[in-house]
């Protein structure tokens, strides 16, 4: 079913009204990508809902940005000044966030302009949605560092417990674990968003954090960056996931000390991994180019905002898998023959992070006579469909195959991409026979070796990842 919220014209997004809102918008556009983040959405009464909303499948991220410079006054106690600053910058935003969640759960309309002309082009199902309320508090970083020599970065300390227990000293935010919000600041906002810069990585961290808040009577940390370091280092081999806290069920209080992130970010394995991750942004670039076409109203074929689709599936991959996928694509391009004649095809099969899903990267070289035909793109798309069908024949456990086709960059400077999300868990026997026959005619999966490789989140200098 087509999403009725998707306009037939260009989608004009806000860029943010203040400097900090624009900064937030740029960060979120990189993490959530262009199609799924929208600054300054409005309620149906023309009042602003929040400072930015990001929606992907059943997860909704609602951001509230507030800036107020904290100034010490020699005639007043720091705790008094802190309580006043916290009420205006954090407490008021927490109440606003809870009101925004109630509005979102009511299924009332959301608009991306103050004239209420463009509805939010991404649908939210209140019956299945998980809401992440995120407060961004600017203005206290220098005061934090000046107050305590132990505060390395100027981050706010955070504690989740039952009720709202006010700590006896400033720059420590106590939050109610029964209805948790996330509080970031000038330092931790860019750090968290740039380290967890995929929808998958960011949402997995927040879900794990919410599980820990629910599990422990107290969860306390000196800065969000220190909690992140604990999370990234705390990998459970049994579940193959990062964790917060301990598997020991007798523990009901977790405290993360100051400096965890500083120590972690200076490890050789962290520095090397960041260097290796640079190649992974090829994957992001492909998604962003197509997303911009969708926003501009110039995309051909299915609009990714309608839900399922190739770009939607590609956006689900975490950073370390994007690194592996990008490397495979680059190697395939480099290994494509320098000299070919007639019609030539090269197919690369690439597994996904998600079970039952894989990617097909198909490069082709086509003669000018074929490229000049009016049905040229249809021929390419039909070839890509057959390649995906052949992958299903060879890997029958697959339920989703995402196809990407380009003309070989070695032989074509003016390139374009074809995408296909091939949902194949219920193919008929006739479909399977057709794809088997056509795949054999094209020679898909008839030559070449199959190589299995384990990909790790963190890599060392000697790794070939």
Describe this structure in words.
- The structure is a single chain.
- The protein is an alpha/beta fold and 465 residues long.
- Helices cover 37% and strands 18% of the residues.
- The protein contains 14 helices and 15 strands.
- The strands form four sheets. A five-stranded mixed beta sheet has the order 1-2-3-4-7. A four-stranded mixed beta sheet has the order 6-5-8-11. A four-stranded mixed beta sheet has the order 12-13-14-15, sandwiched between helices.
- Strand 3 (59-67), helix 2 (78-105) and strand 4 form a beta-alpha-beta unit.
- Helix 1 (19-31) runs parallel beside helix 4 (188-195) and helix 9 (281-296) packs across helix 11 (319-335).
- The longest helix is centred in the first third of the chain and has 28 residues, at 78-105.
- The protein is globular and about 85 Å long.
- The two termini are 40 Å apart.
- The mean pLDDT is 90.
């Amino acid at each position: 079913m087509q999403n009725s919220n998707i306009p037939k014209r260009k989608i004009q997004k806000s860029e943010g009204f203040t400097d900090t809102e624009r900064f937030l918008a740029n960060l979120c556009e990189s993490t959530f990508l262009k199609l799924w983040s929208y600054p300054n959405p409005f309620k149906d009464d023309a009042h602003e809902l929040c400072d930015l909303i990001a929606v992907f499948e059943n997860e909704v991220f609602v951001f509230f940005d507030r800036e107020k410079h904290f100034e010490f006054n020699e005639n007043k106690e720091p705790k008094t000044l802190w309580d006043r600053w916290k009420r205006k910058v954090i407490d008021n935003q927490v109440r606003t966030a809870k009101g925004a969640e109630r509005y979102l759960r009511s299924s009332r309309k959301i608009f991306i302009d103050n004239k209420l002309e463009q509805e939010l082009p991404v649908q939210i199902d209140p019956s299945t949605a998980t809401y992440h309320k995120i407060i961004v508090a600017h203005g206290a970083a220098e005061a934090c560092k000046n107050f305590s020599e132990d505060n390395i970065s100027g981050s706010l300390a955070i504690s989740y417990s039952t009720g709202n227990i006010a700590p006896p000293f400033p720059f420590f935010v106590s939050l109610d674990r029964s209805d948790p919000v996330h509080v970031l600041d000038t330092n931790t906002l860019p750090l968290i968003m740039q380290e967890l810069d995929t929808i998958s990585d960011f949402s997995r961290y927040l879900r794990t954090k919410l599980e820990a808040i629910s599990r422990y009577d107290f969860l306390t940390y000196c800065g969000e960056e220190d909690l992140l370091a604990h999370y990234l280092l705390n990998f459970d081999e049994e579940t193959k996931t990062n964790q917060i806290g301990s598997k020991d069920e007798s523990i009901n209080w977790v405290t993360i000390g100051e400096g965890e992130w500083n120590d972690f970010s200076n490890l050789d394995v962290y520095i090397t991994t960041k260097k290796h991750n640079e190649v992974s942004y090829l994957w992001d670039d492909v998604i962003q180019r197509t997303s911009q076409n969708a926003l501009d109203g110039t995309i051909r074929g299915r609009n990714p905002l309608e839900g399922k689709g190739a770009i939607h599936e590609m956006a689900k991959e975490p950073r370390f898998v994007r690194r592996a996928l990008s490397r495979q694509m680059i190697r395939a391009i480099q290994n494509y023959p320098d000299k070919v004649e007639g019609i030539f095809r090269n197919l690369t099969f690439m597994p996904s992070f998600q079970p039952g899903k894989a990617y097909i990267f198909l490069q082709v070289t086509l003669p000018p006579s074929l490229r000049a035909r009016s049905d040229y793109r249809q021929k390419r798309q039909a070839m890509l469909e057959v390649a995906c069908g052949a992958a299903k024949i060879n890997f029958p456990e697959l339920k989703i195959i995402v196809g990407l086709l380009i003309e070989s960059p070695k032989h074509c400077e003016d390139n374009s991409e074809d995408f296909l999300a091939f949902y194949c868990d219920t193919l008929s026997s006739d479909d399977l026979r057709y794809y088997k026959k056509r795949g054999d005619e094209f020679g898909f999966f008839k030559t070449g070796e199959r190589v299995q490789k384990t990909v790790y989140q963190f890599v060392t200098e000697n790794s070939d990842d």
